[in-house]
Predict the structure.
Amino acid sequence: MLRTLLQGLRSPVTEPVPHNPDIAALAANLDRAAQRRLGRSLAIREVDAGSCNGCELEIHALNNAFYDLERFGLRFVASPRHADVLMVTGPVTRNMREGLERTWRATPDPKWVVAVGDCAAGCGVFAGSPACIGAVASVVPVDLVIRGCPPTPTQLLQGLLALLSAR
Amino acid sequence: MVDAAYWQEATRCIAAGEATLLSLWGEPGRIYMAVLDSGVVVLSLDCPDNRYPSVGELHAPAIRLERATRDLFGLEPVGLPDTRPWLYHGANPTAYPFLPVEGESLHQIPVGPVHAGIIEPGHFRFTADGETVVRLEQRLGYVHKGIDHLMHGATLEQASRLAARTSGDSTVAYSLAFARAVESALGIEIPPRSEWLRGVMAELERIANHLGDFGAICNDAAFSIMLAHCGMLRERVLRCAAGCFGHRLMMDCIVPGGVAADLAGDADIRSLIDEIRARFPALVELYDKTASLQDRTVGTGILSAELARRFGAGGYVGRASGRDFDARRSIGYPPYDRLRFDVPVLTEGDVNARAWVRIKEIDQSLSLIEQMLNQLPQGDVRVAIEPTGPREGIALVEAFRGDVLVWLRIDSGHIDRCHLRDASWFQWPLLEAAIEGNIVADFPLCNKSFNCSYSGHDL
């Protein structure tokens, strides 16, 4: 067991910044912007307001060793009380409306809301359903929309960068 | 089409364990159930007054399906023991009457719908005696998006995209089940090459999910190095999928009539197989030899074989509790009918057994992909769909978490009614049983080892 564990530690587990030039460029920019605006700290609370869970999979991927979001000082937190940013996915369902509103109210100011995915942006394939309220912006004020079905981790990084630069 | 007497006799057979309930759904004036006997049988009962004899009265696994069908179509199951709404939360969602719990020194822990992690919403009401969970009651439906409603009148293309977004982690399986149901309704033969490419996609999806969840189960026992390693392997699978089929999750890559994109070359998939084979066994060894990890997973969250059988638990939930069912083999559909693979079955029924079924399935899936690549025929990958109808079709395919059932009626190129049943419908209630007697702190482990879909269930 120890041998296996040590082997894993001897060679770096985290890759050097992935060679994909987009990600490398984003990473450099995101690092500078995050530092300037937030002193290396941005806490994100993710809220699924009706997603098919595709967006959640790709948001999860931001934490894997390839994207390693935390190296930029961006991290996911367990409570809205600790959050600067709400990252909301899904067309807001009737049944999640109150959950989303309460989460938003529980998040201290200043706060930003990022609508992630085509459903959060405009209901996507669920547009017109009587079980859905509408896009995230119809329930809470949205600062940024990251489209995609689901957006790739690279697109998500791009979006976070845009949010930081805009403020 | 059956009469009420036959319907009730079928209910009695299911309750007696002579057949397995696969699903129950409805539409105004008619109720349906799918039963697994020697094959898949669909029974339909006309109920002009929208009332029918409840299946859930005798067979508990039907209760949530009947509650949902009542919410969606107003069909009243006469005799249903639990008459609370299920998918419709109404104007005052906090006013749900949870079942009463009585006893000394019990306390309740309400969790959700917004959870602490990056996961889907649902409410768990724990009743605990000190650290020990004496009962869990789930309340789901938070991500109910009205898929049944949207399906009605949708074009094939719209409906296919909706099916692909029923549960994002099983998007390939849902697309496959939907496409196969359409093809069975219309009697369409698809090009052989597309059958094989569908198989490759389905197995890549299975591997990606098993890798991610295996890492996440270990992470819930605070063994985060496994999540880091498995997360990297999972990312490799997704990148390979994006390179080969144009989408990381392979969303909308399977369509009625074939597949949307052909595979240009298989070198990337082959090197992916090599990499997983080179790196995964060391992780499994680490899992197996880490006492602190085993201490959390072995003997935790035991699901009895009897309950797994009664609920027709699909996927690793059933197979870790002795239920030897895998739609790829038990029902059999192309290309699996021409491939060699084992269906791992264990009997312990704990978190460890569910993890081990997944470990073994990764191995089988790698071998399946290799066999498919070796035998991949040349030719077209898609045929046109000629709109006819009205026709009905059904398909049962094995997603990573269990069998997905799709039943539909199609008329002149439009979907008239489409019912999608995730394996989670029968797994969620079993999680309530598996957690009983375990400590609250072990719930994340139990939950992750089941990994039921909220979206796939809430529709």
About this structure: Chain A touches chain B through 53 residues (CB under 8 Å). The helical segments of chain A are 2-10, 21-38, 54-61, 97-106, 118-122, 153-166. The two ends of chain A are 49 Å apart (CA to CA).
